[in-house]
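seq as requested:
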Amino acid sequence: MDDSLVPGAWVRHPTRPDWGLGQVQSAIRNRITVNFEHAGKVLIDSDVISLTVVDPDAI
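struct tokens:
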């Protein structure tokens, strides 16, 4: 798991830009729960999907 994927971190899904910006809600091993702007709460397997951590101030 990426050490930057901690609760509160802002992320984007690399193949679903339509989901918008997401905030990590929890990160337990490879299971990352993210609340996305346009997709709601989604459970991500970080062994399969590499979320992109973003700086919300740079958007």
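The two ends are 25 Å apart (CA to CA).
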